[in-house]
């Protein structure tokens, strides 16, 4: 309700807020690009450093403990990396939904379960996915584009259902 009140009171900045909430790939100030890039770079490097331990954690908690992993510290470290990566991405493009869901699933199909490979594949596929969504947006909806987040959500919802139905035995 506080955000909606701010949007109501600030008519012109409300367009910027809506654009941010729906996600957009537009020109950004250099400061924003540098700050977001820094967060992403630090998060990616830390994630690479933790990738071997994250692979061990994927074996299960008991097995990871037997192999010497400190599960509590590892979870906090992974959560910190995710926060840096997501914060940097959202700082650049806004909240573009489903990219973080679609891309890692496809990367896992292509690369397998190893975290190090998934990090690189997800980064490259995520960038390619977002660029392709923007190109489709500009070609199909020319001259008035829709926010790219709407296109990603239009693909993400059916993809989510596909993943859910594919793993039907696990959830139902």
3D architecture notes:
The chain is mainly α and 172 residues long. 81% of the residues lie in helices and 0% in strands. The chain contains nine helices and no strands. The protein has helices at 2-9, 11-22, 30-57, 61-66, 71-93, 99-111, 115-140, 148-166, 168-171.
Order of helices and strands: HHHHHHHHH
Please estimate the helix content: over 70%
Largest sheet: none
Shape: globular
From the structure above, extract its key features.
single chain, 172 residues, mainly alpha, 9 helices
Give the secondary structure arrangement, pairings included:
Elements: H1 2-9, H2 11-22, H3 30-57, H4 61-66, H5 71-93, H6 99-111, H7 115-140, H8 148-166, H9 168-171
Question: Brief description of this entry?
Answer:
The protein is mainly alpha-helical. The protein is built from 9 helices and no strands. It has helices at 2-9, 11-22, 30-57, 61-66, 71-93, 99-111, 115-140, 148-166, 168-171.
């Amino acid at each position: 309700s506080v955000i909606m009140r701010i949007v109501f009171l600030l008519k012109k900045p409300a367009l910027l807020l809506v654009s941010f909430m729906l996600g957009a790939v537009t020109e950004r100030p250099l400061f924003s690009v540098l700050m977001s890039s820094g967060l992403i770079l630090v998060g990616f490097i830390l994630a690479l450093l933790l990738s071997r331990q994250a692979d061990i954690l994927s074996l299960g908690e008991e097995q990871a403990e037997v192999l010497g992993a400190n599960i509590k510290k590892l979870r906090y470290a992974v959560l910190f990396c995710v926060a840096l990566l997501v914060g940097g991405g959202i700082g650049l493009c806004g909240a573009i939904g489903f990219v973080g869901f679609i891309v890692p699933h496809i990367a896992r199909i292509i690369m397998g379960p190893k975290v190090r490979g998934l990090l690189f594949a997800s980064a490259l596929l995520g960038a390619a996915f977002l660029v392709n969504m923007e190109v489709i947006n500009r070609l199909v909806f020319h001259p008035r584009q829709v926010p790219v987040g709407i296109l990603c959500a239009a693909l993400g919802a059916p993809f989510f259902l596909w993943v859910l139905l594919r793993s039907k035995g696990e959830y139902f």
